[in-house]
Fold:
Amino acid sequence: MLKATNLHKAYGNLEILKGVDLFVEKGEVVSIVGASGAGKSTLLHIAGTLDKADQGSLIIDGTDVRSLNPKRLSAFRNSRIGFIFQFHHLLPEFNAIENVCIPAYIANKSKKEAEKNASELLEMLGLKDRMTHKPTELSGGEQQRVAVARALINRPAIIFADEPSGNLDSTNAKELHKLFFDLRNHFGQTFVVVTHNEELAGMADRELLMKDGKIVGVEQLTRIVTG
Ligand code: ADP
Ligand code: ADP
Structure:
């Protein structure tokens, strides 16, 4: 699903990624853990095509990302990649279902189709009674689940989550990470989740340890069966 090879990235003289390989299978939940400053976010942004590596190759869902011009890249990103961030970035003036529909509209889906998919997803995420609530009327955990639905609406091949539970209490955090497994089991969705929390990092099929711009350890936590 994801094949990133020998990624290098520097900001000025500061080398942030020092040759990272990241391979993720379809339907796999992979966590990346490591101290602050290890380069986790940088890696996630590059693997998610939000930022460019100085060197290295990146293939997502069979597409060589470097071969896409900017217009095709943004269409590819919107349709094939989902993002979840620490702060949900929901638009405050729109309610839950409207927020979830936005990527579908960008992908030229009709209002009817977008709303149907969005309401089914929100229902599945336990937010049936929250669809017309504005973000400020939702709890932190609910807001983050709306952001998860928004990430899923275009049925992306892969979802990148950067400290998705960084703003949640530990109960909500664990529930969110458990949800990634549920969604994987239901949709066969692939997740790459960055966290600095060891316990949450353990809620994955495979845990990668990042240190000083490199992946220095791998722990296979479960053995997944992909179809
Ligand atoms: P982590 O997510 O593991 O905490 P980051 O990838 O956010 O690590 O950051 C790694 C290093 O890269 C940090 O020292 C950070 O200051 C630096 N860095 C990240 N983004 C930029 C940027 N746009 N310009 C300069 N330095 C950056
Ligand atoms: P059903 O309950 O009819 O079998 P699914 O459980 O497959 O339907 O899907 C439930 C909802 O999730 C539908 O809105 C569907 O469009 C949406 N959906 C299906 N596959 C995915 C996917 N891979 N990622 C995100 N959403 C999906």
